Amino acid sequence: MPDPYLALDGALAIVTANAAWRKLFAPGDLRQCEQLIRALVIELHAGGRRVSPVFRLDVRTEETDEGGARPRYWQMHASLLPATPNEPALIAVRFDDVTAHTLKEEEDRREKALLRSRARLRQLLVKDAGQRRDDHASTFEQALARTGVGVWQVDVTSGIIDCSERCLRDLGVGRTAALTKEGLLGERTGRFVANWRALQSGRPVEFELKVQASEERFRWVLIRGIGQFDEDGTMRSVVGFTLDITGRKEHELELDALADSERTGRERSDAFAKAMDQFIAAVSHELRSPLNAIVSWAELLQLAADPASVVRAGEAIRRNGRQLSRMVDDLLDSGAVGTGKLSMNMQPVDLGALTATVVEDARKLIEHKGLRLGTSDIFPCTVMADDNRMKQVVWNLLTNAVKFTDAGSIEVSVILKGDCAELVVRDTGRGIEADALPLIFDRFLQVAQNSGGRVGGLGLGLWLAKHIVNLHAGTITVVSDGLGQGACFVVRIPAMTSHIG
């Protein structure tokens, strides 16, 4: 540029100077017009310009005789270059040499034509400088685009939005007219209002926007903006930038998902470890009780001479031995279920007759506890099932009802309902709390005693029953109105034929 130019920082220190300025002036010359510059830049705002009065500042040139200073007159043109994300705000000062104009104006009016010509020349120079500035802005925008940054501006009065091509691509719109300030500053009304209020108060806003890039992929864009204000404090525009942060965001989401997965796995592991501890304690207690009974009755059998005592001891040993056998079977079956190797021998089975047999086996246990047993609604219903496995299901439901019920009754029914055989075991026992219902079929579960939980047991009976029923393409559900209201277990198995008698 032919005119002397300076770029100053906020403390009026020289940041850079063009060749024309360095040729005419020395750094010390700036101190002679420092006060004038300070007055010039007061209240100077971005995009505005101010011009100083004419002043004299002599400079030394090669044409000066004997190294003297040649009188020169100047006018300074100041403008504020706004800050960018990478550069602070700068003050641009152009030194306009008006020596000839000043001297000629005082010398002769006949030079007006020449002065007008020079004014025209200055206009051309200003126009050329403006063109160069526009070219520089375009180059700057292209440089930002190459670095992945899009720029935008919203005129508050008109609502017109000006976006760079990179900004439009980031936001997923084809043209500026398709973009509103609401879409730019927040899709949801609440976020837009909050962002707009922040901008009006002078605070910058920054948020992440999820943009639909294609039918299968989304893009994440960082949007940042800040308000620009007039001297009276009125916000005239909002400027900002966009930055594609898809890679960073996807990495963050992957890390969050991994952390959630690890946390869930750790919680499951801790819960399983706790359940295993409870299970081991339950096994130790449950196995010890029948074993102690068997040993005690066996010792008594050696000493007893009364036949009645011998029969009683034999019955006790048989009963506790069967209890041990069932617990061992449950443990073995739980392992088989866990490995997917539980054996099934499917054949037509009368679920009503099977249930009646199991009920008779459990009758002494039920009546010994003083409970009433209702079996009036057990009817023949043929299903495709494994006889022994279904007996295991019915037995587990019955013994579970006995454990839960201290007084009252247990009712068992088998009916044909629709295309399924329905087995119902209902008790008037302790009931189950609502928050425990979803967990009742979990492995090793032992519901707390204050919730009306189990009295003993390994925590495998209902879990095994559910898996066996699932292998029969059936369902098992439980209903309870709460503590003290009893419970009702319902098993539904697809029926083959039915005979109601």
Automatic annotation (TrEMBL):
Reactions this protein catalyses: ATP + protein L-histidine = ADP + protein N-phospho-L-histidine
SMART domains found in the cross-reference section: HATPase_c, HisKA
Entry keywords, A to Z: ATP-binding, Nucleotide-binding, Phosphoprotein
Protein name, as recorded: histidine kinase
Secreted is among the record's keywords: no
Gene3D superfamilies to which the protein is assigned, alphabetical: 1.10.287.130, Histidine kinase-like ATPase, C-terminal domain, PAS domain
Organism lineage: Bacteria, Pseudomonadati, Pseudomonadota, Betaproteobacteria, Burkholderiales
One Pfam family recorded for the sequence: HisKA
Top class in the EC scheme: transferase
Any coiled-coil regions, as ranges: none
Any GO MF annotation of the entry: ATP binding
Domain named PAC: residues: 205-257
